[in-house]
Amino acid sequence: MSRTEKILDQLASEGGTRDTGYAWRFALPLVIVLAAACAAVALIIDGAFAGVAIAGLGPILVKWGFSLTLVLLAPVALWTLGRPGRKSGWILPALTLPFALIFGDLVLDLSINAWPFPGETWPRCLAAMTILSPLAFAGATFAMRVLAPVKLRRAGLVAGLFGGAVAMTAYAPFCPERGMLYLAVFYCLPILAMAGIGWLMGPKLLRW
């Protein structure tokens, strides 16, 4: 029996689902990249939560509500995709819902508020998303290679979403900008771009 067949048998069997070794080896890279991204931003940028003194908790709660939803959902989706035989039809609808809520709120926000756009700190935000997203995506890729994904493009897409969400989670406390338009353009679009890169690269990075 080949190594691939052994992995498939272990992951598809009931005994494989109880193997905590796979769970730890899968989770560890995800935890490491999240902690590393938060630490890196904290070391490089000053003024964490400075925007809270100006605008209150609302903006950071919206940003973290969106990004942490993806940070929590994406590993569950990756774990499901990495274990053959698991139903995965729920994954894309579940991961689409946070974006649908954001763009729905965007329409409402534009009709009520006139926030300055793009603000003064957008280059820093875009740089943080551009640098941190691929690093977190790499961590998700390492995590997936512990398992046995068969839908490689879908797994790559979810890994990309995780990478972008980690970057947003790490940078959000240092972002003073407000408004759903800013969130949609400088957070959601980079996350979706990273997901697109993951979709394209998934078959190359995740094949056995």
UniProtKB/TrEMBL annotation:
Pfam families registered for this protein in UniProt: NrsF (PF06532)
Ranges annotated as spanning the membrane: 26-55, 61-82, 89-108, 128-148, 155-174, 180-202
InterPro entries: NrsF
Keywords in alphabetical order: Membrane, Transmembrane, Transmembrane helix
Name recorded for this polypeptide: DUF1109 domain-containing protein
